[in-house]
UniProtKB/TrEMBL annotation:
Lineage: Bacteria, Bacillati, Actinomycetota, Actinomycetes, Kitasatosporales
Keyword Amino-acid biosynthesis included in the entry's annotation: no
Keywords: DNA-binding, Transcription, Transcription regulation
Disordered as annotated region, ranges: 1-25
InterPro entries membership: HTH_LacI, LacI/GalR-like_sensor, Lambda_DNA-bd_dom_sf, Peripla_BP_I
Residue ranges occupied by any HTH lacI-type domain in the UniProt entry: 19-74
Pfam families given in the database record: LacI, Peripla_BP_3
Name this polypeptide is given: LacI family transcriptional regulator
GO MF entries: DNA-binding transcription factor activity; transcription cis-regulatory region binding
Amino acid sequence: MPTAGRPTDTAAGDRARSATSADVARHAGVSRATVSHVLNGQVERFLPETVDKVRQAAAELGYVRSAAGRALAMGRSDFVILVAPPTTLTNLQDIVDLVSGDLEKLGFTVVVHVSRAESAQVTSTRLHNLVEALRPAGLVDLGSLSEDELLKFQHTGCPVISPTIGTGGPRTARDDLNASIGRVQARHLHRRGYREIVYAFEAGHRDATWGRERMGGVMDVCERRGLTKPAYFDVPLEPGGARAALAAVLRGRVTPLGIACYSDEVAVALVFGAASTGVHVPRDVGIIGTYSGPVGQIVSPRLTSVYVDLRVSLSGIRTAIAETYGGILPPVLPAEARVISVVEGETA
């Protein structure tokens, strides 16, 4: 007679311990060698349905390959380098947490390397030295490296995952998520009746990669809609500096001005700068931020901002990580899921 609470069937027993490659092979109806090849990304010799069957079996059983085994098979360490662009945005931590969480579940140790905007050559040299020293199991780029740089790393045998290039070669053009943010900002301001639009950087961070790409999106919309080429200016994150920056950009202008901001922090600084100088928001100045952080939603007037759904924007990278290292694929998102949307506030 079975003891209460003790599993009596094989499936339940399998769930009571960690799944092995043998379990995956049995579940998929293939050999262990096939499982090893497929989960190591060596899929060229197999039919697509076989590859899908193995990956599905691994996902259903919750199978996670050991980092040590992968590193031994690849002749590399169990480190993965996560390359982040220079930015002051607070949501970078959210991005890093999401991607590194996937890698750590696979048993990897994540090393975060932040590029330096002021010296691309120094950044490239430091990263090459880091790759040579660690012999990482992979490099995950969040959009700071050029396609040429990524190809160089790939030619060393290091698996590379990026919006620009995949582990098998070039994938797509440079991911234009940030340019799309700028385009959404500019289109929203134009729909609200602003015929002149400018871009506001955070002072001291004009070289931030994502900021330059967003300004490019603003410029694109203005050009397509026959608007004046947008000027840009720097906003210090302190009352006197923000007030002076706003006064300078408004000098000589008689029409309402739309301002697309690098971040919510820049937008909030301008909102307070306007309030202290008698400039009415949104009648005289329309302001739209980026990333819809909580601070912008509790100030008055409540900030209009752009929201980016990280589950959607990072789904490609997270899927590539799972496919490269044999992890569990991220949840399939609804077809109508939007990467970027405007959070309506009271400032634009």
